[in-house]
Amino acid sequence: MKKLIGWFGLAVLLLAVQISLPSSAQDAKITVMNPRGIQPPIRLIPMPERGSIEGKTVYVVDIKYANTRPFIDELHKILQERYPQTNWVLKQKTGMYMDDDPDLWEEIKEKAAGMVIAIGH
Read out DSSP for 50-102? Predict the structure, then answer.
């Protein structure tokens, strides 16, 4: 009797597996979705010519994203070498990269003609 129940259980298991599998490759259909969704079209917005940065102050801001400091230091050095007539000010934002720093933003609005900010990634 135990042997009969064992064979019966095995038969039921095999039947369940056979039913769960598609009968042929043509019957199996899957839907693949784009994880980015539908992207909006890229709009090109014409910007006015800003002129020269010669003789102006430009801030280079490090927002303290992980491992950006060496990149910002090198960027600041290269900008100073290539544009010696421009006053380049290197600043670190207060707090971590996601914290606001209204004092720095106000200083930049008052004293700078522009800003370069590294946002990571």
Answer: ----TT-EEEEEE---TT-HHHHHHHHHHHHHH-TTSEEEEEE-SSSTTS--H
Rounded CA-CA distance 119/52 in Å is 25
Residue in 78, 103, 82 with CA at minimum distance from that of residue 93: 103
* Domains of the chain, residue spans: 57-118
pLDDT in tens, 9-66: 777 677 666 666 665 656 678 888 888 888 888 899 888 887 889 999 999 999 888 8
pTM, rounded to two decimals: 0.59
CA dist 104 and 121 (Å) reads 22
Structure-derived torsion over alpha carbons of residues 90, 91, 97, 98, reported in degrees to the nearest 10: -130
